[in-house]
Amino acid sequence: MNWVTFAIVAWICLGLETGLRDVLQLNPTAIAPSFVLPLMVFVAIWAPSGVAMAGAMLLGLLVDLTGPIATGADSRAVVAGPHALGYLGASVLILNVRGMVIRRNPVSVVALTVLAGIVSGIVVVALHTLRSMYDPMVWDASGQLLTRLASALYSGVTALALSLILFPALPLFAFATAQASAHTRGMRRHA
Predict the structure, then answer these.
(1) Cα(153)–Cα(83) distance, rounded to whole angstroms?
(2) Contact between 110 and 163 (Cβ < 8 Å)
(3) Average of per-residue pLDDT values in the chain
(4) Would you state the pLDDT for residue 74?
(5) Greatest CA separation found in the chain?
(6) DSSP per residue over 93-109, as a string?
(7) Is there a contact between 172 and 2 (Cβ–Cβ < 8 Å)?
(8) pLDDT at 174 over 70
(9) pLDDT (tens digit per residue) in 34-68
(10) Closest Cα to residue 166, out of 3, 15, 13, 61?
(11) Most buried one in 64, 107, 180, 188, CB count within 10 A?
């Protein structure tokens, strides 16, 4: 994978997510779509497994570092790790099912984004709930879980929009699996 392309696209997606969160949020709830999650799904569909998991961890860490949680009435804290582990778990799931989907179909990205959002949301809520047992923080596990599951569904919309942009940019990412499949097609034509 071309890590420079990945870094640029991740920076753009993270900027869209942090900048448009308040605009796209369904008021009065905290339900908002993710732009980073569809990128993680796209990478997990195309990249070799080790690269996909590393990319997922990096994207999850970026989401952790830009999304502080409330620890009191007027205080917030950055907790690194929950989204990184949630995205890692979601990428492992996608790696296991990517052979059963049509990679070049935007609907596959939408469906896997919703599935990845559900998995990562469950992991994030579980880890924050465990942390709230020993660390004082404002945390309602059931409310957070419902919000994250609804946000996963809402992220399917951004996944559709991003897939229409990311698929034409596929050669810029230089995924080994994409190159290998193109090479294999070329070998079949010559045989």
Answers:
(1) 17
(2) yes
(3) 90
(4) 80
(5) 69
(6) HHHHHGGGS-TT-HHHH
(7) yes
(8) yes
(9) 999 999 999 999 999 999 999 999 999 999 999 88
(10) 13
(11) 64
